Amino acid sequence: MTTSRAQWPSSEGTRDAAIARLEQENAQLRHAVDSHATVDQAIGVLIATHHLPAVAGFEVLRAVSQHTNVKLHTVAEMVIGWPLGQPLPGPVGRELGEAVRRRLRQVDAPDPPG
Questions:
Q1: d(C-alpha 88, C-alpha 27), whole Å
Q2: 5 FRET partner, CA 20 to 30 A, in 27, 65, 77, 95?
Q3: One-character DSSP codes across the chain
């Protein structure tokens, strides 16, 4: 999103509001980038530990998040910490195992004739 100088409001109070809005948007975008990087790292852990394709790794993270009612980036942080010796909370660990097993069955299943 670009804003030309001609679009900036002329009054000082309105300009301050616009600057505050842009700073808030910038902070939200930085958070989104950081969250995306965390999810990518967790997918890498799943690829390395379970030999899943990248798309399947994301699907596993999403399934764990949905079934445990834990935000996706929080699940990703837990998965990143797991090979470093941090324990996975019970429900997340159980669901992660189930989601990986379900996904591996799908990957290993032969394609239906057609």
A1: 29
A2: 27
A3: ----GGGS-SSHHHHHHHHHHHHHHHHHHHHHHHHHHHHHHHHHHHHHHH---HHHHHHHHHHHHHHHT--HHHHHHHHHHGGGTPPPPHHHHHHHHHHHHHHHHHHHSPPPP-
Q: Which two tokens stand for residue 7?
A: 């679009």
28 vs 13: CA distance, rounded Å: 23
Find the angle CA(74)-CA(75)-CA(78) to the nearest 5 degrees. 90
Is residue 27 scored above 70 in pLDDT?
A: yes
Query: How far is CA 58 from each of CA 10, 12, 29, 34, 44, rounded to the nearest angstrom?
Result: 46, 46, 21, 16, 10
How many Å apart are CA 94 and CA 48, to the nearest integer?
Answer: 19
Mean pLDDT of the residues in the chain: 85
Is the pLDDT at 55 greater than 60, yes or no? yes
